[in-house]
Structures are given as structure tokens and as C-alpha cells.
Write a structure and sequence with these properties.
It is an enzyme of class 2 (transferase). By secondary structure, this protein is α/β, with parallel strands linked by helices. The protein has 11 helices and 8 strands. It has an 8-stranded parallel β-barrel with strand order 1-2-3-4-5-6-7-8, surrounded by 7 helices. Bound molecules: 3-methyl-2-oxobutanoic acid and sodium ion.
Length: 275
């Protein structure tokens, strides 16, 4: 299957759901591509699920570049979106463009993602007009979660819901080709999805968006710190992994690993001539 391009995602609306998954390394990207996800996000959730930070604000350009390169090597036929880390777009349009170009050039990613609504529309417009495909991200925006009361559902009041609708419309009007809606009520996400011409990708935004995204470690049960309500765990890999490692520890301790099937032999005549 040839790799998708930006217009393909718009064309999928109303015909088939768009499936996005995060990945952060070669092995994860290989699995995501083999499983048939439509696009991969190298999210700055990297900071939390892979690097163990308490927040995504500690993630750097170098972190994103390092990991996105690995993802690219594992998923050459899949459209890749890379998150612009905290602080890399807020210091002016020139910096934002320079950082976006740098990310794309260094990694081979196809698009960048920027958190924020109305306040980031000049950046979204500048990057889009410069030829960089931009994915927007509104609702719960983890880089500024401290201002939003933590990792909580957004848009519960008339005022907040109205603002999220304005945010989504504004970033789409500014040229974003896709909008991620995070942690908002399902009916609000539905309303936004009906209004926007570009596809919406939900996470904790109900079933009516044009697509869904999940964090790889959440889907596979690899992240132990917390599991948001909107996560469906398709496996308990942390549990499986710990059990497997326990078996390894036990086998080495009691001498049952490595067995003959894991060991190399040597000709007796060679061995006998050693002194
Ligand atoms: O960083 C990330 O994984 C994200 C998704 C949750 C949308 O931004
Ligand atoms: Na992110």
C-alpha cells in the first residue's frame, strides 16, 4: 500500500475512520505499521511514557529528533506526524518555522503537530503557508495542562465548550489539515467534527470524530502511572513483561537457562588441543 498523503486523510472522512497511534522507537513503529495504522504520531507523550518525566514540558527538540528517526526507520511506508515540543513555537514565527523545518528535515516526518487554539493560529498559518503540513491539537493540551487544572476533561461549561469550538475552527481556518481533540465531551466533539472540513482525531472525545488516536503504551498496558478513563487497554504488557523477566531471573538463578539449545558447541579435537 502506498504511503498516504495529506489529501488522502481528508478523503477518508465519512468513508472510513482514520486510525492513529503513537510510536517512539523502531520496534514500536514496526508493530504499528504491520498492524495497519493509518498514521503514526511521535507524540511528546514520549517524555512521560518512555523517558519517565512527570510532564511533557521537559521534552526537547533533540529528544523528538532522536526518537522520530528511529520511528521512521521502522515505518517507512507510514505517514508520520511529529510533535513540536513545548517552547519551540512560542518565541516567534521565525523560530517556529525554523524548528519545524529542522524537525522535518532531520527526521523525515511528514507533518508537525502543535498544541493550542486561537492563540497559535498565526503559527499554524505561517507553517502551513510555508509548505509544512500541520496537525492542530485542542481541548486538553498536555503542555499547558497546569493552566487547565491538570489532566481533566475540558469543555464542560458553555463558555469552555464555546472556546474549544472557536479554537478548533480557528486552527482549521489557519490551515491545519487535521485537528486532534483531546478529553472533551463526546457531543462537543461531534459538533466540532460536523463543522470542520478537515478530519478530527479524537482521544477521550467519543466515537463521532473522524478518527482516533491512542498512546502506544496505554493501548498495550505498558504505562503504569495512571490510566485515563478514555484508554482501552488491548493488552497488559507490563504485567506480561514482568512475569517473563521473573522467569528469566529464576531460570538463571537455578541454572535452567541457558540450556544446550542456547549454547554453542566445539569440536572435541579442537577442545583437546587447547592448553
Ligand atoms: O503526545 C501525544 O501522544 C499526543 C496524543 C495524545 C494526541 O499528543
Ligand atoms: Na503530544
Amino acid at each position: 500500500m502506498p504511503k498516504y498523503t495529506v489529501p488522502d486523510f481528508e478523503a477518508m472522512q465519512g468513508k472510513q475512520k482514520i486510525v492513529m497511534l503513537t510510536a517512539y522507537d523502531y520496534a514500536g513503529a514496526v508493530m504499528a505499521e504491520a498492524a495497519g495504522v493509518d498514521l503514526i504520531l511521535v507524540g511528546d507523550s514520549l517524555g512521560m511514557v518512555v523517558l519517565g518525566y512527570e510532564s511533557t514540558v521537559f521534552v526537547t527538540m533533540q529528544d523528538m529528533i532522536h526518537h522520530t528517526r528511529a520511528v521512521k526507520r521502522g515505518a517507512r511506508e507510514t505517514f508520520i506526524v511529529v510533535d513540536m515540543p513545548f517552547g519551540t513555537v512560542q518565541t516567534g514565527l521565525t523560530d517556529a518555522l525554523r524548528n519545524a523545518v529542522h524537525l522535518i528535515r532531520e527526521t523525515g516526518a511528514d507533518a508537525v503537530k502543535i498544541e493550542g487554539g486561537e492563540e497559535v493560529t498565526p503559527i499554524v498559518r505561517h507553517l502551513s503557508q510555508s509548505g509544512i503540513p500541520v496537525v492542530a491539537h485542542v481541548g486538553l493540551t498536555p503542555q499547558t495542562a497546569v493552566n487547565l487544572g491538570g489532566f481533566k476533561v475540558q469543555g464542560k461549561t458553555v463558555q469552555d465548550a464555546q472556546q474549544i469550538m472557536r479554537d478548533a475552527q480557528a486552527v482549521a481556518d489557519a490551515g491545519a489539515f487535521m485537528v486532534v481533540l483531546e478529553a472533551i465531551p463526546a457531543p462537543l466533539a461531534q459538533k466540532i467534527s460536523e463543522r470542520l472540513k478537515v478530519p478530527t482525531i479524537g482521544i477521550g472525545a467519543g466515537p463521532h470524530t473522524d478518527g482516533q488516536v491512542l498512546v502506544y503504551h496505554d493501548l498495550l498496558g505498558l504505562f503504569d502511572r495512571f490510566t485515563p478513563k478514555f484508554v482501552k487497554q488491548y493488552a497488559q504488557m507490563a504485567k506480561l513483561g514482568t512475569e517473563a523477566i521473573q522467569n528469566y531471573v529464576q531460570d538463571v538463578k537455578n541454572g535452567s537457562f541457558p540450556g544446550p539449545e542456547h549454547s554453542f558447541t566445539m569440536k572435541e579435537e579442537v577442545l583437546s588441543r587447547l592448553y
